[in-house]
């Protein structure tokens, strides 16, 4: 019944329309921040799609040893609009915070280096900020294959995104909440992110007080919006639907594992430590609780089927079951196929050929349930998992803290008329 209500809410959901006289204009009010360490040719296509919306500036933040290659890449796209900055170590949160400090516009849009936007992306995101209570805005998403055709892993990822679009659209319609403003593309008011408390908390985020977190930045940002009284909105429509690549091989499973650990950590904090979500977005809180128990409820199904087949083997009577085993298994399989296919109808509408992958998606669902339980017991593992070159978070934070201290001293000296250095203060 709750899934039916969710789908009904998605059907009646409507995106925020474009205002006649917009308060925010991309060319004056938007900076796009792109934290990356290994952007390649796919960045060019993504950057060209961002430039169509005419942002004021694009800032790429990378580690020092990658500045040369990324500067060449930026120059090949638009050297006037794209600026490359560096941090001492590869660390996504530190890269993002350095970009925030170097932003002068009212709106910041974080984007992955392979996120391809439609031409209408920026106007539709900015439309949500006409409501002065909105602090963060997200979008719907689709998968773009890395090669000429989809691999089974990319289809599984596309299925997951299709279901996610339904979930975020319905929760936005019901109570205005969302479990996560995806880091692939999300917009925020700069004034929120320049708050020293945010910048410190963002770069000094520890699980259980001792495991320094680098990934999970989008979950942190979403929780910050909720805990500090800001609203969020999802523009779930074709005009604001990005295309993103996924791992086209088994490494997709490592991505999912990292996301799952981040979800466990963040949702447990939202529900039981910060707790504001219970009053601000009760339906979203309910969906979080539902997902906490989902692995257990999903795995109970096969156990009951095995039990009923065992009872069936005893034959009819007081100790037996009235249906034969083949009937039980067939009925269960038909039910699984029907319910899982129904969830995927939005995806199958434009890619009906992917229906052959529905059995694989069903199997993946059970694998994911086991993975989710494994993730729960390994939340102390905070490594990236799919990218080489991610530096030690604590070392990077210490280096950046020292750098900020030096900059503050320079500002103080400049104010006293003593600073004569040649390095810019940014």
From TrEMBL:
Main localization, broad class: membrane
InterPro entries with a match to the protein in the record: Glycosyltrans_GT2/GT47, Nucleotide-diphossugar_trans
Localization, UniProt: Membrane
Gene Ontology MF, one: glycosyltransferase activity
Keywords: Glycoprotein, Glycosyltransferase, Membrane, Transferase, Transmembrane, Transmembrane helix
Chain ranges passing through the membrane: 292-310, 317-335, 355-377
Keyword Signal in record: no
Gene Ontology terms: cellular component: membrane
Name this polypeptide is given: Polysaccharide synthase Cps1p
Species assigned in the record: Clathrus columnatus
Taxonomic lineage from the root: Eukaryota, Fungi, Dikarya, Basidiomycota, Agaricomycotina
